[in-house]
Amino acid sequence: MAREDEQQGDESDDADLVALAVEIFAMLADPTRVKIILTLIGGESSVNNLAVAVGKPSSAVSQHLAKLRLARILLTRQEGNRVYYRLANEHVAQLVTDALHQAEHSIGHPRHHARPVIREVESS
After folding, report:
1. Which residues of the chain have pLDDT under 70?
2. Cβ-count burial of 85 within 10 angstroms (0-12 exposed, 13-18 middle, 19+ buried)?
């Protein structure tokens, strides 16, 4: 009986995690949000700098940032009247990077597999 309860608890936990994962994918299913994540892989940034980087108005970027923050994908730091955004952890960066790698495979051009060719120098 205890084993059954434990198993049901694990299944319930798994179902909750799956539902949360789906919400995360839904949150990232927007080109502007993906561009924001890619920009923030390089480090924290202000709304204005992110707006320039993703080519969108600051007001639109600010709305996307608020949603990503509510989803606990981003964290903020305030300095004076400026707010700086950063990734909450490395997992969302890996998720977006992997999605781009999968997209490369889907179109048949996996650039991330390209390796520089190193040629041995023949001794004279």
Report:
1. 1-9, 113-124
2. buried
